[in-house]
Write a structure and sequence with these properties.
Layout (H helix, E strand, L loop, with lengths): L1 H18 L97 H4 L3 E8 L4 E7 L5 E2 L3 E7 L2 E7 L3 E2 L4 E5 L1 H4 L19 E5 L2 E6 L11 E2 L2 E2 L3 E5 L20 E4 L13
Antiparallel strand pairs: 1-2, 1-12, 2-7, 3-6, 4-5, 4-8, 8-9, 10-11, 12-13
Length: about 280
């Protein structure tokens, strides 16, 4: 028994010296690997900000942590932060939590601003009116400072107070230029840009210049028509050539107001074509 006790004590002392109990620190797999949680800094990628997250510490004698996933593109287009290298005691790849950046928002496209028809055509006016024994004509003048596309414009003709026909226009009218519509008989006597079939009117037939839905100018008045003409002799819309005064640069946009040619027009004899095609030279 004494020999056994002595032998056990001797072996215990030897093991203590061999192992070193004061240094014995058992390693638990996975605990030291928690240092790799530094990879969570990759969440900065959610804002699309920041650089690469810090690399997680090596976990004791465990393997290096796996590389965190790279963050997605942020709204600003910069790369999201890379996930940290999360460490695992077993050397496994622990992906850092790299946030995906928000998708870049698409800005709404601004609408194309386009000038309103009324603004573009504000300088258009009727500049001459011919109602004679043989001839019928309307002259349109661009009193503005910019070219006007007449492609959306037309003359609405009325007969005895009722709508008769629309006569579409076509060309680009330069500033200071005229455009003449006339009857076929008038075209044989002078130069006209357009001679629409059926163009003819009397002294009590209103003429309305429109562009789109906008009234640009009016000769006469819409509604009940007078028996013969508008105005008072010697300035009337019957058997006269009327020429717009040079001081007038904007049309009458109210088709229902009273029309008195003496206010804005000078009267000449019937069938006078001497000034047709030019205005206030």
């Amino acid at each position: 028994m004494r020999a056994l006790l002595l032998l056990g004590a001797t072996m215990l002392a030897g093991c203590t010296s061999l192992i070193g109990l004061d240094e014995f620190k058992p390693r638990v797999d996975g605990v030291a690997g928690a240092a790799g949680l530094a990879g969570a800094a990759g969440l900065a990628g959610a804002a699309g900000l920041g650089g690469n997250a810090g690399t997680g510490a090596n976990a004791g004698q465990g393997g290096n942590g796996g590389t965190g996933a790279t963050g997605g593109s942020s709204a600003g287009g910069s790369s999201g932060a890379g996930g940290g290298a999360g460490a695992s005691a077993n050397g496994g790849s622990a992906a850092g939590g790299a946030g995906n950046g928000g998708a870049a928002g698409t800005g709404a496209s601004g609408g194309t601003a386009s000038g309103g028809t009324a603004g573009e055509t504000a300088g258009l006016i009727f500049s001459e009116y011919v109602e004679g024994h043989n001839y019928t004509a309307l002259e349109i003048y661009n009193a503005g400072s910019a070219p006007v596309d007449l492609g959306a414009c037309y003359v609405s003709a009325y007969g005895d107070g009722s709508f008769y026909s629309d006569f579409p226009l076509a060309t680009t009218l330069q500033p200071g230029s005229t455009y003449v519509l006339c009857s076929t008989a008038t075209a044989s006597a002078t130069t006209c840009q357009q001679s629409p079939s059926g163009m003819s009117f009397n002294g009590n037939d209103a003429q309305v210049l429109k562009c789109g839905a906008n009234v640009i100018d009016v000769i006469g008045q819409l509604g009940p028509a007078p028996s013969d003409y508008w105005g008072s002799p010697p300035n009337t819309t019957q058997d006269h050539t009327l020429r717009r005064k040079c001081s007038i640069t904007h049309g009458d946009t109210n088709s229902g107001d009273v029309f008195d040619p003496a206010l804005e027009w000078d009267a000449f004899g019937a069938d006078d074509l001497t000034d047709l095609g030019k205005h206030c030279p």
